[in-house]
């Protein structure tokens, strides 16, 4: 197999130690892609959450849970996804990382029905004047990800869980999102900024 889009020398070292290089190559050959399939799009846009991995300019990692109503992550092109940034704790760990290091990993998991996982690695940009801002209820910024590698993972260790209901904090049209209780705690309430003007949508 020629140059890999998924594996580097560290991956190869362990693949060789455990005799899995041929399997790893076959998985990349048969499953990895750089364009979002119709099935990928339907899966991504059906989920109310995903996990976002970023790193700062020195490579120090961060992983964040991102949630919203199903469809809050959109497939906007053959190899492009977009998602809104909602009001949070004001730390901007993930998006701040993207401003200094655009490399990103996205992990989409379904734990109800038939478990499923999909990974997307690529590069991201953050915008405060993206046209999607006017359509994404509750958004204060839009993140667009250019996919470089899209690949499913074996879901064997994903537990089967049932989703009761979406978070009451997930932005939706016609509903003013409640403030989380911690923003009213004495330790924080004097420094909580007002919601961004676009947040209420």
From TrEMBL:
Domain Pyridoxamine 5'-phosphate oxidase N-terminal: 41-141
InterPro entries in UniProt: Pyridox_Oxase_N, Split_barrel_FMN-bd
Pfam family, one: PNPOx_N
Gene3D superfamilies for the chain: Electron Transport, Fmn-binding Protein, Chain A
PANTHER family: FAD-BINDING, PUTATIVE (AFU_ORTHOLOGUE AFUA_6G07600)-RELATED
Annotated protein name in UniProt: Pyridoxamine 5'-phosphate oxidase family protein
């Amino acid at each position: 197999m020629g140059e890999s889009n998924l594996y580097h020398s560290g991956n190869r070292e362990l693949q060789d130690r455990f005799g899995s290089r041929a399997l790893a190559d076959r998985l990349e050959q048969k499953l990895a892609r750089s364009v979002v399939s119709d099935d990928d799009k339907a899966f991504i846009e059906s989920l109310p959450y995903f996990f976002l991995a970023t790193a700062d300019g020195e490579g120090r990692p961060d992983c964040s849970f991102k949630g919203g109503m199903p469809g809050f992550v959109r497939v906007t092109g053959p190899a492009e996804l977009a998602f809104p940034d909602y009001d949070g704790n004001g730390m901007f760990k993930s998006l701040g990382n993207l401003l200094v290091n655009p490399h990103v990993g996205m992990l989409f998991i379904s734990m109800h029905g038939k478990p499923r996982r999909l990974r997307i690695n690529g590069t991201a940009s953050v915008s405060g004047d993206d046209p999607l801002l006017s359509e994404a209820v509750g958004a204060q910024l839009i993140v667009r990800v250019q996919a470089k590698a899209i690949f499913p993972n074996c879901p064997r260790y994903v537990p089967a869980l049932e989703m009761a209901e979406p978070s009451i904090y997930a932005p939706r049209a016609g509903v003013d999102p409640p403030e989380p209780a911690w923003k009213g705690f004495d330790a924080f309430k004097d420094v909580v900024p007002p919601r961004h003007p676009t947040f209420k949508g």
